[in-house]
Design a protein that fits this description.
mainly alpha; Serine Threonine Protein Phosphatase 5, Tetratricopeptide repeat; 72% helix
């Protein structure tokens, strides 16, 4: 994961970064997931998939306050949650 993140350091392609974010979920790497998600959201703050994936990662760690915070961030940037 360290090598993958170093490789992604210079990337601005959200798809490549989302792939890394997905790997963070698979390998339970919460700290890296937060860094990668923030990078993607700095490129595209309305990328729904990043919020959902990050929220799911937090939920897998039972960090439900962070899940609520991410959902609030979604609403703040104008992304509506589906019921």
């Amino acid at each position: 994961m360290d090598e993958a993140e170093k490789l992604a350091d210079g990337l601005t392609d959200p798809l490549a970064l989302k792939t890394l974010l997905g790997a963070c979920r698979k390998f339970n790497d919460l700290e890296r997931a937060e860094r990668v998600a923030n990078r993607i959201l700095s490129i595209d703050p309305k990328d729904t998939s990043v919020y959902v994936l990050l929220s799911n990662i937090y939920a897998s760690f039972k960090r439900f306050e962070d899940v609520k915070r991410v959902r609030q961030q979604m609403r703040d940037v104008g992304i509506r949650e589906n019921a």
